[in-house]
């Protein structure tokens, strides 16, 4: 199937050191369907930002110098060096430099969708990403010259990828994570924030919980693989499934949190499609009961040669997905798609996007730490301009509990 120039154009906006590590690995990929080089990494700490740029330069396919790469793909924001692992400080820094953030994103040109990336245990990305999404969704209310934005920004779809800290990490990180999830899902006035919230857990993807650099790279590579499969379906596909399909019905259901479940390099000449879906479902990126899923999408990526030779077809993918949901007694809103990848061979990749599931298995790992710190942190400032009032914390808790309770029914 020939490529066209009509595929969805994505931009990746990553904030904080963890988000920057993930974003830097986009440049490791042979292809970034729909993304190209529209990747911006942001940080309040220049040293951390330079570390991210060094990783990116190690994989970029050109010979740009550090300063040129910084200018093209990086932004230091806020007047303070770091957020002190306190998410209100990250939000305050983003509010302070919102005009510069918007300007840099505009430099990428027209985009149809943003993938916002942050690790939820920290202060910078976890503070800034929910805030910037809300600003874009509400017409940049905090920007003095909001009229300087482009018309295309009004229709951009905002997806967010949030990464949960290791279960053994300090309570402050779990406090941040719970607050970050709530703020990605709901705004302060209890309306939907991100159009789609994707979640991954470090401990789920690294069951040995080593937490060293090699395992972070492995976790980040798994995240990039899921995003590649998700985005690639909107670029080259035999049946149309794209970001608007992912977000429309789940938003109407108020069940727009998802986690990827992935199985790659399975022999399509040996394994049945339903088995491949089962294998993917065993590799969810957060702890969950698959049976609580209320929205699901299946993307099957196969070599062009297998599709052209009719070794795998759209009707087979549809049928396998229907049989898989029936077998697991999952009554879902969702679609399935077959998308090609270049080359021959028989390796098939499967992505399940599972949404609207019961979030309690994930939150159970963090709620005690969150409650332990909540009272002591409410009503305090973080030293770099951020403040968390008791009323704000109460709203964060109420919003999250209402959303979780509804999706646990």
From TrEMBL:
Among Pfam families, the record links this protein to:
Tubulin
- What are the protein's GO molecular function terms? GTP binding
| Record-annotated Tubulin/FtsZ GTPase domain positions | 12-189
Q: What is this protein called?
A: Tubulin/FtsZ GTPase domain-containing protein
In its UniProt entry, the species of origin is given as Halorubrum persicum
């Amino acid at each position: 199937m020939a490529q066209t120039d009509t595929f969805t154009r994505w931009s990746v906006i990553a904030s904080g050191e963890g988000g920057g590590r993930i974003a830097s690995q986009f440049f490791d990929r042979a292809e970034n369907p729909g993304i190209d080089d529209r990747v911006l990494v942001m940080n309040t700490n220049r040293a951390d930002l330079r570390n991210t740029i060094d990783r990116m330069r190690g994989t970029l396919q050109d010979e740009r110098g550090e300063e040129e790469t910084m200018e093209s793909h990086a932004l230091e924001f806020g007047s303070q060096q770091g957020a002190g692992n306190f998410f209100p400080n990250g939000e305050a820094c983003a509010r302070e430099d919102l005009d510069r953030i918007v300007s840099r994103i505009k430099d990428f040109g027209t985009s149809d969708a943003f993938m916002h990336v942050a690790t939820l245990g920290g202060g910078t990305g976890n503070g800034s990403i929910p805030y910037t999404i809300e600003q874009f969704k509400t017409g940049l209310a905090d920007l003095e010259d909001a009229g300087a934005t482009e018309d295309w920004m009004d229709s951009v779809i905002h997806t967010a990828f949030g990464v949960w800290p290791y279960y053994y990490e300090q309570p402050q990180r779990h406090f941040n994570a719970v607050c970050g999830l709530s703020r990605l899902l709901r705004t302060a006035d209890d309306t939907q924030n991100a159009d789609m919230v994707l979640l991954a857990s470090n401990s789920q993807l690294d069951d040995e919980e080593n937490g060293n650099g090699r395992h972070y790279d492995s976790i980040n590579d798994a995240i990039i693989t899921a995003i590649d499969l998700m985005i690639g379906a909107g670029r080259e596909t035999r049946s149309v499934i794209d970001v608007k399909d992912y977000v429309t019905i789940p938003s109407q259901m108020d069940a727009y949190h998802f986690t990827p479940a992935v199985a790659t390099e399975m022999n399509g000449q040996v394994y049945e499609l339903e088995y491949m879906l089962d294998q993917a479902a065993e590799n969810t990126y957060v702890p969950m009961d698959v049976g609580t899923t209320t929205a699901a999408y299946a993307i099957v990526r196969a070599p062009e040669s297998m599709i052209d030779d009719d070794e795998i077809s759209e009707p087979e993918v549809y049928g396998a997905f229907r049989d898989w949901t029936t077998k697991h007694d999952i009554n879902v809103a969702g679609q399935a798609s077959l998308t090609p990848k270049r080359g021959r061979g028989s390796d098939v990749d499967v992505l399940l996007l599972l949404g609207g599931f019961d979030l309690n298995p994930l939150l159970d790992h963090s709620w005690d730490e969150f409650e332990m710190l909540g009272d002591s942190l409410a009503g305090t400032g973080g030293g770099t301009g951020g403040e968390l009032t008791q009323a704000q914390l109460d709203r964060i808790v109420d919003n999250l509990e209402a959303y979780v309770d509804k999706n646990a029914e």
